[in-house]
Amino acid sequence: MERINPHKPSGWIALSPLFVFLCLYVVTSVLVDDFYKVPITVAFLFASCYAVAVTPGMKLEDRIAQFSKGASNPNMQLMLWIFILAGAFANSAKAMGAIDAAVNLTMHVLPDNLLLAGFFIAACFISLSIGTSVGTIVALTPVASGLAEHTGIPLPFMLGVVVGGSFFGDNLSFISDTTIASTKTQGCKMRDKFKVNTMIIVPAAVIVLGIYIFMGLDVAAPVDDAPVSWSRVLPYLLVIGTALMGLHVVAVLMLGILSTALVGFLTDCFSFLDWFCAMGDGILGMGELIIITLLAAGMLELIRFNGGIDLLMRVLTRHIRSKRGAELSIAALVSIANLCTANNTIAILTTGPIASNISRRFALDNRKVASILDTFSCFMQGVIPYGAQLLMAAGLAGISPISIIGNLYYPFMMGSFALAAILFRYPRRYSH
After folding, report:
1. Rounded to a whole number, what is the distance in angstroms from the first to the last CA of the chain?
2. Distances from the Cα of 422 to the Cαs of 45, 189, 277, 332, 376, in angstroms?
3. pLDDT band for position 219 (50/70/90)?
4. What does DSSP assign to residue 37?
5. CA atoms 314, 320, 323, 325: torsion sign
6. Hey, how many other C-beta atoms are within 10 angstroms of the C-beta on 152?
7. CB–CB of 410/204 below 8 Å?
8. Among 51, 132, 204, 429, which is least packed by CB within 10 angstroms?
């Protein structure tokens, strides 16, 4: 078990770095009416320095060491590897014409009025098959960006379609780490949690699909009679295919990078040096994303170390009186834990034992509790601008993660349906 600072600050000081970040970035951006004017890296830098400053009872070097412990967490380091490889793959694929070829193929296969719905279904299917939202976003974001450019669909909206669909599978898949964590902590079978989950979120997905079908009626793509270049589409097909086979995302991206070289050399798209330069530019383009991830991870570790998450858990479980209140407290716990950790799996593992205690105390159905943990953690992870998914999509597309949030139809619909399931005691069979 990870230790807590024995000299932890009292009250809400432990959580105040998060409030400092939100004030510096979100509030300031709203006041100036422009989210591009306030660099998110600077907001995290000030919040991180503040987190180090308010950590009591330790020498400065020890506070920095604790901050660095969060930044060097194995999960964070793996995420950095993915960011680096994704940047190299995306830019080398773009340099050899893969994006244009994939967009051309998509517009040949799907009619204009089904582009939005088709992309949402693709994101849902891929994420359900591979169990990861990040892998889905890596595979589809470059193509979505190209489609947005060709069709005139706003880029943040198109990315919202991809990110939203990616969380459908992240929440439901049997091989998703959130599914495994939620069922293990609550002691239920994955298929039972799956049944409860589908009753709650499939209606939300159907409604969002209907919205995309309706909104897609006005989409008109320019006519392109150019033949599909299958060889240049190969890197994307390889990435999607190997991901569906269950290969680790790092191996998937490595194969994708090598395939861009092979196809690029054989089709004379670029030279060896051009390939190297394209990868280098792609990696450099991920620089801001990597800095944000490191600063956020260190800041959130100090919040945990200073007892911020424990404080929230005590406050939220203090006045529970009913089953509905118990389920709401579990939803709030995992949501706020996710807000403070920016990792839905860690949030579930952190709050899972407490949720299990609440479940036993109020005789809750452990299958629904597992569903609540998974769904609300995915909802929160899907809408925070410093979560890996929004950072990845924004980094690959070169836009602000904040600009995507208002276009996340499915995550917000998923959260609404999950909240309604608690308030209206649905499904009945699992809410007695």
Report:
1. 34
2. 38, 21, 52, 12, 11
3. confident
4. S
5. negative
6. 11
7. yes
8. 429
Residue 30 CB: number of other CB atoms within 10 A? 12
| Contact present, 162 and 144 (Cβ < 8 Å) | yes
CB proximity list for 210: less than 8 A, separation 6 or greater: none
What's the Cα-to-Cα distance from 271 to each of 262, 280, 398, 399, rounded to whole Å?
11, 14, 25, 29
Residue 223: the pLDDT is 54
**Residue 427, preceding bond cis, omega within 30 degrees?**
yes
Q: What is the DSSP letter of 87?
A: H
Query: What does the alpha-carbon distance between residue 298 and residue 165 come to, in Å, rounded to a whole number?
Result: 29
* Distance between CA atoms of residues 113 and 132, nearest Å: 28
Collapsing DSSP states into helix, strand and coil, what is residue 113?
A: helix
Which amino acid, residue 331?
A
Q: Write the pLDDT tens digit of every residue in 202-211.
A: 999 999 999 9
Residue 10 binned pLDDT confidence (cut-offs 50, 70, 90)? low
- Res. 331 pLDDT band, cuts 50 70 90: very high
- Over the stretch 284-312, which tens digit does the pLDDT of each residue have? 988 887 888 888 889 888 988 898 877 87
Strands (E), 214-341: none
Question: Distance (Å, rounded) from C-alpha 356 to C-alpha 344?
Answer: 17
Alpha-carbon distance 351 to 336, whole Å? Answer: 10
**3-state SS assignment for residue 358:** helix
In angstroms, rounded to a whole number, what is the distance separating the alpha carbons of residues 269 and 10? 61
Contact, 352 vs 393, CB < 8 A?
no
Give the C-alpha separation, 370 to 42, whole Å.
37
| Contact (CB, 8 A) for 115 and 126 | no
Predicted local confidence at residue 36, as pLDDT: 62
Dist. CA 405–CA 176, nearest whole Å: 23
* pTM for this prediction: 0.78
- Report which residue type is found at 262: L
Tokens of 254: 């490595």
Q: Tell the residue number behind the tokens 């506070």, with chain if given.
A: 63
The whole-angstrom separation of Cα 240 and Cα 68 is: 35
Q: Using CA atoms, how far apart are residues 184 and 195, in angstroms rounded to an integer? A: 16
What sign results for the dihedral spanned by CA atoms 177, 77, 20, 16?
A: positive
Structure tokens at 323: 């089953």
Taken in order 91, 97, 100, 105, is the CA torsion positive or negative?
A: negative
